[in-house]
Amino acid sequence: MVLGSGTSNGVPTLGKPYPATYLADPRNFRTRAALALLGPAGNVLVDCGPDMRSQLLREGIVDVEGVFITHTHADHVMGMDDLRSFCLKYKRSVPVYTSPDYQEDIRRIFSYAFREYPPGIWVPRLELLPVEPHHRLAGLEIKTFWLEHGPIPVLGLRVNDFAYLTDVSAIPDNVWPCLSGLETLVLDAVRLEPHPNHFHLESALSTAQKIGAKETYLTHLCDDYDHSVTNASLPSGIELAFDGLRVEL
């Protein structure tokens, strides 16, 4: 499930007027990019942006078995404090999978989550774990690989015939075999104009056609995109993602 399909500012963006026609389409209201993998034995979050609480409430998601953090930009981690609700529910830490460098970022940003407290004081407790090429979590077989987000690495994931590539500007040669035979791809396409750290529309379309998934949904979208207007102009098999989009794994 696509929890959020928006770019770092969210859409609509604060301080900016929009035409009534744009605001009339609920699919143009985009929270920060995030994904929920709904498995047979629980749910796995991919990123915890500042909208995570409202996203999970909106979708009725009441359990989380673990979290993958693709990278530690603010729009992908600043909701991690709300994981405390699951720590309180389960009386244990939430497993969080990410790279060693991003683990250090999380320790720095949420330093209070790693301190000792008197009994009865609850903070998010995060069990920081390494990313392996394969994980079995919540009854799902999750394959992982590293992509390029400008100068930094970003985590991509594949479950069965579904792949999620957010905040990506280039796909390394060794990753292409991981993307063969996809039914569904969710792919970054941040804006219409070129961007140094993201695919823009033209590069996303080119990449989607090269990967050749039967269905591709573009995500991490800014307000360049008016949902219905843009969809009408996209090639067959490619559409804009939207908050709440459900895809069978």
Care to describe what's here?
The protein is an alpha/beta fold. The chain has seven helices and 13 strands. The protein has helices spanning 20-23, 52-59, 74-77, 84-90, 100-109, 201-211, 227-231, and strands at residues 2-4, 34-39, 42-46, 66-68, 94-97, 126-129, 134-137, 140-149, 152-159, 162-165, 184-188, 215-219, 238-240. A seven-stranded mixed beta sheet has the order 7-8-9-10-11-12-13. It starts with a strand and ends in a 9-residue tail after the last strand. The mean pLDDT is 97.
The main β sheet shows up as: 7 strands, mixed
The dominant shape is globular
Order of helices and strands: EHEEHEHHEHEEEEEEHEHE
Helices, by number, come to: 7
Would you report the number of β strands? 13
Mean pLDDT: 97
Name of the CATH class? Alpha Beta
The separation of the N and C termini measures 9 Å
Query: What is the CATH topology descriptor?
Result: Metallo-beta-lactamase, Chain A
| Structural class by sheet pairing and helices | alpha/beta
Number of domains: 1
The value of Rg in angstroms is: 18 Å
Question: What is the CATH architecture assignment?
Answer: 4-Layer Sandwich
Low-confidence region ranges? none
Strand order of the largest sheet: 7-8-9-10-11-12-13
Could you state the CATH homologous superfamily? Answer: Ribonuclease Z/Hydroxyacylglutathione hydrolase-like
Beta content: 25-35%
- What helical percentage do the residues reach? 10-25%
